[in-house]
Amino acid sequence: MLIKLEAFLSESLGAFYSPLLKTLEIILTFVIAIIIVKIGKFLIRKFFENQKKFKFKLDDKRLDTMSTLLISVFKYGIYIGAILIVLADMLDLKSVLAAAGVGGIAIGLGAQSLIKDTISGFFILLEDHFAVGDLITIENMTGTVERMELRVTRLKNYNGDVYIIPNGEIKKVTNHTRDNKMVIVDIPVAYSSNMGKVNEIAQKACEEVKEEFSVFTEEPTVLGITELGQRSMNLRITARVFPNEQWAVERRIRMKIKEGFEESSIEFFDRTTL
Questions:
Q1: What is the percentage of the chain residues whose pLDDT exceeds 70?
Q2: CA 171 from chain center: how many Å?
């Protein structure tokens, strides 16, 4: 039946039959490649998600990084394979090899940046500079690592902007999520204020914030006066928390101090110097 259909189409289309058949084969090759990539992505993600359930496993961020990188390698491999199959089908294999010999130098020169980016990506992974989910700064770009691919790293900042950075261009990285963070809250206090009451309010704020948050590695502490300015003294409170938790804690301490000062009619600045 298929032979008869092929003969019928060949007779009906004439000279157009062979080009049409080649075109359909090319389309089918890429469709199959896309399907394989989608299935591969699903299986790779599923594999690494299952790894997270084991008792003895790597860090979740590292597993996510390995997952995105492996997906990128798999995707490039399948698409490059599909292109080679199409070229071998369209052209005589000997001609392809001969052309590869002539154009190899030009392709090699053009692929230098690709090779550089790929090798840099592997070294970033192996040396564990950062992982998916880390908050990092590269040059003047700060954001959370969304994906780390074979060639590029993708960061998303607080505004939702996405930075796409070739791995080969990553020279200096500041990782903001690899160690506990210091909380430093400086409170201006008027010279006329009752320092006994100020310290009482500060201690109470520290105790209340400590009860609200479970992120402390070092409890909030009132260090005391650290600076004497023209209009006020500086009261400092410090603590140490898990990565990325410092801002919420600082905001809450400031709010508690403000509420305490308002209840006790304590001023932040000495208005007599205005």
A1: 77
A2: 16
Q: What is the pLDDT of residues 47-68, one digit of tens each?
A: 877 776 665 555 666 677 777 7
Inside any domain, residue 45: yes
Q: So what's the pLDDT on residue 7?
A: 55
Q: How many domains does the chain have?
A: 3
Over residues 125-129, the mean pLDDT reads 77
| Range 103-129 burial, b when 16+ CB lie within 10 A, else e | eeeeeeeeeeeeeebbebbeebbeeeb
Question: Do 149 and 58 reside in the same domain of the chain?
Answer: no
What is the rounded CA–CA span in Å between residue 66 and residue 69? Answer: 5
- Mean pLDDT score across all residues of the chain: 79
Taken in order 27, 33, 37, 39, is the CA torsion positive or negative? positive
Range of the domain at 234: 181-273
Report yes or no on 237 lying in a domain: yes
**Number of neighbours of residue 223 by Cβ within 10 angstroms:** 12
Residue 135 CA: distances (Å) to CA of 68, 131, 152, 166, 215: 17, 9, 16, 18, 17
Whether the pLDDT of residue 175 is over 70: the answer is: yes
Lowest mean pLDDT among 4-8, 14-18, 115-119: 4-8
Residue 55, SS3? coil
Domain membership of residue 116 (yes or no) is no
Residue 103, pLDDT > 80, answer: no
Q: Quick check: helix, strand or coil at residue 151?
A: coil
Tell whether the model's pLDDT for residue 212 goes beyond 50: yes
Return the CATH number at 64. Answer: 1.10.287.1260
CB 209 within 8 A of CB 203: no
Q: Assess if residue 169 is contained within a domain.
A: yes
Cα distances (Å, whole numbers) of residue 188 to 57, 96, 249, 252, 271: 48, 75, 18, 16, 12
